[in-house]
Design a protein that fits this description.
Elements (H helix, E strand, L loop, with lengths): L1 H22 L1 H7 L22 H9 L21 H8 L9 H4 L2 H9 L1 H4 L25 H15 L8 H8 L11 E2 L2 E2 L6 H22 L15 H9 L17 H15 L3 H30 L4
Antiparallel strand pairs: 1-2
Length: about 325
């Protein structure tokens, strides 16, 4: 009897594991090719070899760099020149606030973005090869050493940014992804947090602006980027990190730009997506140990009950 029970248990365990493998790891491997992480090092971009000067960088950002003509820098009191839907109509997408660009983005990426946006974003196939002009103008220098000037601008952006430990997951998501991807479960639209209005007409007016914004993104990207409310439930952390790092490695020819974020920022973006797609995960993790204790105790009593019932048959 004992041998039969052991064989039955072994058969059940084997087929359970086989079914799990076919449904989860094997199916995932077949449906999603494995992409090795580039470790957010952006090896295709040149190193910054100059030591940046913050004061000169500020002068360039406010002057010859013309950054504030399109971008807000809320941390120093400079608001956006246009409402989001109007900016999207002009540029295809609302230009990001640069308050924390120095901590969100990789230094090399930020430097190359200033010098050659389409190259840094890996969308040259969409613009240059398609005969279109990228909406962000390249910086051609202010008459001096252009590499030094760009290093100065990067240094300035780093000087006004919050520290990495103070960058919240929502701040990371908003800047890196939130201007193209909505998260309806968090009441996040591509224009920001959806306000609560007292009157229905105000709600409708806001929703019309969102629709106008989405129309601009469709024209700019070719299609509306997906809502990411539940994306974390259908993709692994590894997939999301490598997709954020370089979308072309997963979808060659996609219009989605490379975000250029640092490894730490990518972790926070994924953290935000986890919170949006699984709102009870922290609460569930807290009670997990209690559930395991319950299972162990239940198994012990089940074993003792089985021994009691079957004792006359052994």
């Amino acid at each position: 009897m004992k041998n039969n029970e052991t064989i039955i248990l072994a058969v059940i365990v084997f087929f359970s594991l086989l079914t799990y493998y076919l449904v989860e790891p094997y199916a995932h491997h077949v449906l999603h090719k494995h992409v090795e992480s580039e470790k957010f090092e952006y090896v295709d971009l040149p190193l910054i070899t100059k030591t940046g000067d913050v004061t000169r960088g500020q002068d360039l950002v406010m002057g010859a760099g013309a950054c504030v003509g399109c971008h807000a820098i809320e941390s120093i009191g400079m608001a956006a020149s246009m409402e989001p839907q109007m900016a999207a109509a002009a540029y295809g997408v609302n230009p990001p606030d640069l308050s924390n660009a120095g901590v969100i983005y990789n230094d090399k990426f930020l430097a190359d973005l200033i010098k050659n946006p389409a190259h840094a974003l890996k969308v040259e196939h969409v613009f240059y090869e398609g005969g279109k002009t990228h909406p962000m103008s390249s910086f051609y220098g202010a008459g001096g050493d252009i590499d030094q000037e760009i290093a100065d601008m990067v240094a300035y952006f780093k000087s006004i940014a919050v520290k990495q430990e103070d960058l919240t997951p929502k701040m990371a998501y908003e800047n890196a992804c939130g201007r193209c991807h909505a998260v309806r479960y968090e009441n996040w639209t591509q224009m920001g947090d959806k306000p609560t209005f007292k009157h229905k007409k105000d709600t409708l007016a806001y929703e019309i602006k969102v629709l106008e914004y989405e129309d601009s993104i469709k024209s700019y990207m070719g299609k509306l980027p997906p809502d990411l409310s539940m994306y974390i439930r259908s993709r692994s952390d590894s997939f999301l990190r490598t997709f954020i790092e370089n979308p072309q490695n997963h979808l060659a020819g996609t219009a989605m730009p490379r975000t250029g974020v640092s490894s730490e920022t990518a972790d926070k973006v994924i953290e935000y997506m986890k919170d949006a797609g699984d709102t009870k995960r922290h609460e569930r993790e807290e009670i997990a140990i209690n559930v395991m204790i319950y299972i162990v105790i239940f198994a012990l009593f089940a074993f003792l009950w089985k021994k009691q019932v079957w004792r006359d048959l052994h």
